[in-house]
Design a protein that fits this description.
CATH topology: Alpha-D-Glucose-1,6-Bisphosphate, Chain A, domain 4
Number of strands: 7
Shape: elongated
Number of domains: 1
Helix content: 25-40%
Structural class: alpha+beta
Radius of gyration: 20 Å
Order of helices and strands: EHEEEEEEH
CATH architecture: 2-Layer Sandwich
Strand content: 25-35%
Largest sheet: 7 strands, antiparallel
């Protein structure tokens, strides 16, 4: 006799945590990636957006007001805050235009009013989600440009 349970109701655990950046290289020019980064970060309060240096930084975000991890069903503590730093670097890879995006999430937890905040590692999910959405935005922009180009040819 064997017992089985439905995976839908299984408790979800947090992924491993780590300190450090998440990064990805996109085969696209810098301007394309910069536009995509700004589209993806629209819900976030931006503190720095410097295209010349390729740096975007969010303001301090309390708790999970912008993005919540799927494995947490309860509301995060009010002492938790984080900010994201995104660096966009243009270059070439295999004789193609390539742009590298690096995301660092600095998370702090303040246990009580009197103690100093403690840095805690990120689970990496928000960073992975942003990198995934960047790739999708680049694909969408390219598909729309291709359709527009075909439409312009048909009108001529």
């Amino acid at each position: 006799m064997s017992l089985s349970a439905c995976a839908l109701f299984e408790e979800r655990n947090a992924p491993q945590t780590f300190y450090g950046p998440r990064e990805q290289v996109y085969f696209a020019n810098f301007e394309e990636v910069w536009r995509a980064v700004n589209l993806v970060l629209q819900p976030y309060p931006l503190r720095i957006s410097n295209m010349d240096q390729g740096v975007l930084e969010t303001d301090n975000i309390r708790g999970y007001k912008v993005w919540g991890p799927p494995y947490k069903s309860d509301v995060a503590s009010t002492g938790e805050s984080y900010h994201l730093t995104i660096r966009v670097v243009k270059g070439n890879l295999e004789r193609r235009a390539a742009t590298k995006v690096t995301i660092v999430k600095d998370t702090e937890v303040q246990v009580d009013f009197f103690s100093d905040p403690k840095n805690v590692p990120s689970d990496g999910l928000e960073e992975k989600t942003i990198l995934y959405r960047l790739g999708r935005e680049i694909q969408i922009e390219r598909a729309l440009a291709k359709v527009q180009k075909q439409k312009n040819r048909a009108q001529q």
